[in-house]
Write the structure tokens for this entry.
Amino acid sequence: MNTVSLVATPERLKADFPKLYRALSPNATPGPQSGMYEVDPLACATALGRWLAGSVGSTHADAAESLCNILLPQTEEGVHVRELAERLMLRQAIANEEQAEALYADIEAWIAARRGAAKIVGSYAFRHRVIRFQWPVFGAAAAEGAASPAAYFEVCAKQIRATGGVIIDIGGLPLPANLAKSMALNAGGGDQLLARYRSQQVALRTDPLIEFSEGRITRELAIAALGFRDYAALLLALAQAGLAPPAPTPDQAAASGK
């Protein structure tokens, strides 16, 4: 059995805890509260539901143990492409040349905007998007009629799978490898998607070092990109990576010679 703090509607809490439930005062704002529920993971029908039921300690949005990070198959730029495609699907009934030209103009404007954005954000545009799962309120419509904690986690498992992605972790607890393989099947499996993501994360730590070593970015940009406190930390990271600091520019060399 697992004990979990579920955010729930007042009606759900009143039904489940009639002796403990305290009605809201007349001056209080009605809204979701929470209750401590016992849940048996074995009562869940699916492996993902059982893992959620046994691993989640809280569904409070501000609780660290509730943070469920999901890696999507789409990159940041890919999400923008998908959103454009969804908008274009609504404009298929092109009735005349004027409507067609308006559509072409919108597409051209979108392309120009995306090119400009890509130049600003750089490699960030091609990272896989990570989202945070929003736990539905137990007893609310978003919980799809779940009448028990076990049924609730089955609903959550279904909603998480519907994202097409794979869970990175929940409250820092990684998803078991066998479950990762069963997710994000349209992306080759969640285990493969996670492997690409982790490789990408390594590159994010090394690319700014390489760019700084080759003199392509300033020390300020490198420090900011890597989250270092100062130049000394940047120099240490360069040494650990086997990279040399960039050669001084003519202005820097002249200044140091004075």
About this structure: The mean pLDDT is 88. The radius of gyration is 25 Å.
